[in-house]
């Protein structure tokens, strides 16, 4: 007999330092967490944080201070299913670009995430594993950090628990962690499915209220998005240290697997940008620098070959590189993988140019494209490179 208590509003990250690109998302009097994506115009979070909200605001703690940015729109994943924790993702588009000082994040696109160490960041309630989180209202939400490890997937956990659980995660779509205190008695996944691992010591944490939508990072890339916690028992054995669902030792948490949902994320971001060039003729190779904020310059990649399979994904890796322009001063560096999904033959890469009112000469930077998968650049060609020039408008004088 398996008994399950789940509450998708309860999240937890234990105290620590935060990342500048992790944000608080407020919607309809409730709040969760999220992460600013490359391009500085959109935030990835959980669907259940935003469902039914009329207005959404994103709060950022930047090196220059705390700011609030109203959202211009948001979108929930079309397969969002709160009962089973499926498709619990949302994208929030900012009403104005994020400041250049806010850290942007890249998606973790690989399926080797199970077994990987992760860093959890969010605005959840503080507390400890012995007594759980501190109740809302007694402390102000602040950014916290913790460590853990992706132990298994939601469907593997369901299979191990057997038929007594009314929960149906999409295969491969959810990543599961547990909150260990170093003992075998409170090793949740050890008790529930024989995955013996007593944890990360004092650095280990779990999600709590307010961390919903917060990222789990692998090597700095977003691999998971916080969804729910659960206190599970099996055959009369409960690993939960206090048998109360409060993000205490012995509980588990689930994250949406970003690699599983990357197609929806990528295509939603592309569709929402009205300035993306649709043909090579529309590509601008120069950009007039603004006096402040960031503006976007685009690189357009096209595939002119034949797919072996219409369902095949094609990809290239890319990275910006300094010329006379300097990353962090003149533009925001990016390095990622561009994927052309079924039905796509082209996609644009946007790079943010940082505005200032300092007189300086025109400057240039490069985008290198390499490691093609599913096609090639031509015989003997390992890398493609394009250049963009930032035109200064602040009265440079020789």
UniProtKB/TrEMBL annotation:
Record-linked Pfam families: Calx-beta, Trypsin_2
Record GO biological process: cell communication; metal ion transport; proteolysis
InterPro entries in UniProt: CaCA (IPR051171), CalX-like_sf (IPR038081), Calx_beta (IPR003644), Peptidase_S1_PA (IPR009003), Peptidase_S1_PA_chymotrypsin (IPR043504), Trypsin_dom (IPR001254)
Native organism: Vreelandella salicampi
SMART domains on file: Calx_beta
This protein's UniProt keywords: Calcium, Hydrolase, Ion transport, Protease, Repeat, Signal, Transport
Listed name of the protein: Trypsin-like serine protease
Keyword Iron recorded: no
Transmembrane segments: none
Domain of life where this protein originates: Bacteria
Annotated GO MF terms: serine-type endopeptidase activity
Assigned GO CC terms: membrane
Domain Peptidase S1: 1-270
């Amino acid at each position: 007999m398996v008994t399950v208590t789940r509450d998708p509003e309860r999240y937890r990250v234990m105290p620590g330092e935060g990342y500048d690109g992790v944000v608080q998302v407020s919607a309809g009097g409730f709040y969760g967490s999220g992460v600013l994506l490359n391009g500085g115009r959109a935030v990835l979070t959980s669907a259940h944080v935003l469902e039914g909200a009329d207005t959404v605001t994103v709060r950022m703690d930047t090196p220059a201070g705390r700011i609030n940015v109203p959202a211009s729109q948001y979108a929930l994943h079309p397969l969002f299913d709160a009962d089973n924790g499926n498709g619990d993702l949302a994208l929030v588009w900012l009403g104005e670009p994020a400041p250049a000082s806010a850290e942007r994040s890249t998606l973790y696109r690989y399926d080797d995430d199970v077994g990987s160490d992760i860093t959890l960041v969010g605005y959840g309630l503080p507390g400890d594993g012995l007594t759980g989180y501190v109740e809302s209202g007694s402390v102000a939400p602040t950014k916290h950090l913790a460590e853990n490890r992706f132990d298994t997937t939601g469907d593997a956990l369901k299979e191990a628990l057997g038929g007594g659980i009314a929960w149906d995660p999409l295969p491969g779509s959810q990543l599961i962690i547990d909150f260990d205190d170093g003992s075998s008695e409170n090793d949740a996944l050890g008790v529930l499915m024989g995955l013996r691992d007593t944890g990360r010591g004092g650095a280990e944490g779990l999600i709590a209220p307010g961390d919903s939508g917060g990222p789990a990072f692998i090597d700095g890339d977003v691999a998971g998005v916080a969804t729910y916690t659960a206190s599970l028992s099996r055959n009369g054995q409960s690993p939960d240290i206090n048998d109360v669902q409060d993000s205490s030792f012995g509980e588990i948490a689930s994250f949406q697997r970003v690699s599983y949902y990357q197609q929806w994320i990528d295509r939603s971001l592309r569709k929402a940008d009205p300035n993306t060039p649709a043909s090579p003729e529309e590509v601008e190779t120069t950009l007039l620098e603004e006096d402040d904020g960031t503006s976007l310059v685009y690189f357009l990649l096209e595939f002119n070959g034949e797919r072996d399979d219409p369902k095949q994904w094609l990809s290239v890796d890319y990275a910006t590189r300094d010329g006379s322009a300097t990353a962090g001063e003149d533009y925001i560096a990016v390095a990622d993988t561009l994927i052309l999904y079924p039905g796509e033959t082209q996609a644009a890469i946007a790079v943010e140019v940082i505005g200032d009112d300092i007189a300086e000469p025109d400057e240039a930077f490069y985008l290198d494209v390499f490691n093609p998968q599913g096609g090639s650049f031509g015989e003997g060609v390992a890398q493609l490179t394009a250049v963009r020039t930032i035109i200064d408008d602040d009265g440079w004088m020789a």
